[in-house]
Amino acid sequence: MESEKKFISVITPVFNEESNIFDCYEKVQLIFKEELAQYEYEHIFCDNGSTDNTVNALREISQKDKNIKVIINSRNFGILRSTFNGLMNASGDAVVVLLAADLQDPPEAIIEFVKKWEEGYEVVFGVRKVRRENIIMRMIRNFYYHIVRKFSYISIPFHANAFQLIDKKVLQALKQFDDYYPSIRGMIASCGFKSIGVDLEWRKRKKGMSKNTFYHLFDEGLNDLISFSFLPMRVAIIAGLFISFASIVYAIFSLITVLFFNGGNAPSGIPTLIVALFFLSGIQLVFLGILGEYICAIHFQVRKRPLVIERERINFDK
Predict the structure, then answer these.
(1) Label partner for 234 (CA 20 to 30 A): which of 184, 262, 284, 294?
(2) For the whole model, what pTM was predicted?
(3) Domain boundaries in the chain?
(4) Are 292 and 225 in contact (CB under 8 A)?
């Protein structure tokens, strides 16, 4: 009796990507028709409230191909929330977490991902060794990856993003997370399963404009730091201690000036006010940093808003 085929899920978040939908769909379809013909698959598109013709394009594709499943959100909830919601609804033995519709991450890498998965790796992540973007953005990204890797309390692979394949046991582990703003890359890394990286080239976008602005990149980067690093609060504490120490040094300097140099040129009482101002400011930063540690912990624990609100689903079992 022929054994049942393994099942693979592919998640693609989209927002105003009408020019790339068909290319992305056809590329994945071709991969599973030729190189990965021994696997069944589902391709889940998560629309984030698109205002162009993206939803109509998805309806057209899903009507003729039942491997295509669509989740349509009521508005734009952000790429991370939308992707994680799609991830939670995947049913594959393995899941490609985030294949961008613009195909800047090469879909062909899925073939290598699956090979490594069959070798026993439970997480296979793409490593963007080559980036087709301007040198300033490459430098900013390199600096950011160094900061995250150095100060995170988990080991996050360098130059790895959410374009990766995970085993279903990793997916089950992710379902235990309850986070309003999921940092997918860090969450997968924190699960601690057997992993390996696959080098790939991050290409230039061929069609349309990127919706990932610098603000969104900054927001996602800050979310990574807050979710898996104490760096922001520790910086506040260290800054507070440094300013307090500097004020003490200045106080000693002012005392010497008053005692041995007749107070210098400063009016009486001004040095004391300056010292008090800087000292108290430093102490406040120290305690705000410490307080912030607890507030962040409480904030992420009690925040219970829905991940996304869906308008419609297509080709999902009732």
Answers:
(1) 184
(2) 0.74
(3) 7-229, 231-302
(4) no
Each residue's pLDDT tens digit, 249-259:
877 877 777 66
Task: Name the residue among 19, 12, 16 with its Cα closest to residue 207.
Answer: 19
Q: Which helix (H) or strand (E) holds 124?
A: strand 123-131
Per-residue pLDDT, 118: 93
Query: Regarding predicted confidence, which is higher, 204 or 43?
Result: 43
> Who's near 114: CB < 8 A, 6+ residues apart?
8, 36, 39, 94, 165
- Cα–Cα distance list, 155 to 41, 179, 195, 259 (Å): 31, 20, 11, 55
The three-class DSSP label of residue 31 is: helix
Of 2.40.128.20, 3.90.550.10, 1.20.120.80, 2.60.120.10, which CATH number belongs to 7-229?
A: 3.90.550.10
- The predicted model gives 51-57 an average pLDDT of 91
